[in-house]
Here is the input.
Amino acid sequence: MEKLIFFILAVPILIFVFYLGGSAIMTGFKAKVDNAPNKENEPNTDNINDNLENNSNLSAEITKLNELLKSGVLTQEEFDKAKKKLLDN
Here is the structure.
């Protein structure tokens, strides 16, 4: 009878302890995976090169517009509109 009472009390307690331990281990693994650096967070060098190329093209276009303004082909108003259009794209 004593052994039966012991098993009735001990088995659920052991199952609960194993459950807690397993859930703690799985939480640790999940945190490790979530905090691991991944490729999405690293800067993409292709994207950086594209941005630099776009910026140099933008600079060249604004420089051309400025030259047209200085030569009198464009008015200040037209220059501002064209520059705003370039910067918004």
